[in-house]
Write a structure and sequence with these properties.
There is one protein chain. Helices cover about 25% and strands about 25% of the residues. The protein is an alpha/beta fold and about 475 residues long. A hairpin with a 2-residue loop joins strand 3 and strand 4.
Length: about 475
């Protein structure tokens, strides 16, 4: 196998393949690990949290819920690396690390876990041959049964708005906040990077206006890890404190003296909108740099930005081509109640990478040892529902499955629901549109699947609930 990319997605995939005994090469055009975190976020502080001290002991499986930025490892020294860096840096007063702390944490993981990266090796093209694939690189050809592209959604992307070509992208924005002192700033977009800019510039800019057609879904943001950046700009918007989040479709952008004039049409409040600003920034997002993979049949979604993927993150249009990292967003899951996966962030796709490695090992004929459930199955499932970081993080996306032979594994829930497999039970954690979190158990018997929703618990300690024990005994 060949894995391309030395960001967290590539590093986690390579690590897991190595522990399964799968021979592979990990290629990177960079000269050190980190991927996108070598450059972003622009204003240096992440959206996801790491708590140096928490209810769970640092380095344990349970602690993963409190450290969303570190990668997974069997070796104690390679666990919780980002939280360790934060303890020694200046960020102890913050729950979210700085960009350099994330980069340093990934470097420590590589060193301590022994991840072998071939730096300075740039992937340039891909073709099929009789045995699989050939990747042409700056160091020559690499042949493999399966390639895994962990390239990150890293290529700046702009929407098709007349005049936007003159507007610098988020990636090209000045990192010196003083450059915006006393200026009016308009940001095209209202997603993560737009609110990161607004949050960082609020102490400096005179006025900030964020513009995009769709309103911010505050009920969703309030339940997500990105709320740290969203909430203060949104509060300023509510009281008119100099930052405004406007719902408008941008028709065109013009130069106006030394600044910009943005013309749009209101979507929630109809009418013409004109915004003048000294500075304009296109926070319109990124796309995955697919290179020539489209020629192999790799299809995309989200306006061509993300590859369309199967439940095990294989290209829907190019069998044998796999993706890791935040590109795994291309496998959306069931999205019950509109709740999406956490696959766009490290704390979600690190679990995808482990599952992907096991899946690929089996495709290659490498034996994979699975958990054998001994003792009381009800107790076992309730403990997983209470303590599993995979289920708590990837709500309604990953499931803990035990078959009738008492063999257990964590798999994508869509795979379990769509597969015509043996009798089995799948336990997962789900969340509804109101933010209630609760367990759901799916039972497959003779090809028919039954869905059983359990009651929520305020502290989510399902293993301590006699009511949940009785209910699960009835179900099983």
């Amino acid at each position: 196998m060949v894995v391309v990319g030395s960001g967290p997605g590539g590093l986690q995939t390579s690590y897991c393949l190595s522990r399964l005994g799968v021979r592979h090469a990990l290629l990177s055009r960079d000269d050190r690990p980190g991927g996108m975190f070598r450059l972003y976020p622009i204003f240096e502080r992440l959206l996801s949290w790491s708590e140096p001290d928490a209810v769970a002991e640092r380095g344990t499986r349970e602690y993963e819920l409190y450290d969303q930025n570190s990668l997974l490892a069997d070796e104690p020294a390679a666990r919780a690396c980002v939280a360790e860096v934060m303890l020694r840096g200046e960020s102890r007063d913050f729950i979210v690390p700085e960009r350099w702390e994330m980069e340093e944490g990934l470097a420590r993981f590589v060193e301590r876990a022994g991840v072998a990266v071939r730096y300075g090796c740039e992937w340039r093209s891909t073709r099929r041959d009789d045995d699989g694939f050939v990747l042409e690189t700056s160091d020559g050809e690499y042949r493999c049964r399966f390639p895994v592209f962990a390239l990150g959604v890293t290529q700046p992307w702009k929407s098709q708005i007349p005049g936007i070509e003159d507007v610098p992208h988020y990636a090209d924005t000045s990192r010196k906040k003083r450059d915006y002192a006393g200026k009016d700033v308009v940001v095209i977009g209202k997603r993560n990077s737009a609110f990161e800019l607004a949050d960082g510039l609020e102490p400096w800019a005179r006025r900030i206006v964020l513009v995009s057609p769709r309103p911010v879904e505050t009920s969703v943001v309030a339940l997500s890890t990105v709320r740290v950046r969203y909430m203060q700009p949104l509060e300023h918007h509510q009281i008119g404190g100099g930052t405004f989040a406007l719902d408008a479709a941008v028709d065109r952008i013009e130069r106006s003296g030394a600044g910009f004039r943005v013309h749009g049409r209101g979507t929630n409040l109809p009418g013409e909108l004109v915004v003048d600003a000294d500075v304009a920034i296109a926070a319109t997002g990124f796309r995955i740099p697919l290179g020539d993979l489209g020629k192999l049949g790799v299809a995309t979604v989200a306006q061509g930005r993300i590859p369309a993927l199967t439940p095990f993150w294989e290209s829907a249009g190019a069998p044998g081509v796999f993706f890791a990292g935040n590109a795994t967003l291309g496998s959306p899951g069931i999205r019950k109640h509109g709740v999406g996966s956490a696959s766009g962030a490290v704390h979600g796709f690190r679990y995808n990478a482990r599952i992907l490695a096991r899946h690929l090992a089996e495709r290659l004929g490498v034996p994979v040892r699975r958990i054998r459930v001994e003792g009381d199955l009800v107790d076992h499932l309730l403990r997983e529902l209470t303590a599993s970081p995979e289920l708590a993080t990837q709500k309604g996306y990953l499931a803990y499955v035990v078959d009738a032979g008492r063999t257990a594994d964590v798999v994508p829930l869509t795979h379990f629901l769509d597969e015509e497999g043996p009798d089995a039970v799948a336990a997962t954690i789900e969340m509804n549109a109101s933010g209630e979190v609760y367990p759901v158990v799916y039972v497959r018997r003779r090809g028919t699947i039954g869905e059983h929703v359990l009651d929520p618990r305020p502290l989510r300690d399902y293993a301590a609930s006699e009511e949940h024990r009785r209910r699960l005994e009835e179900i099983l």
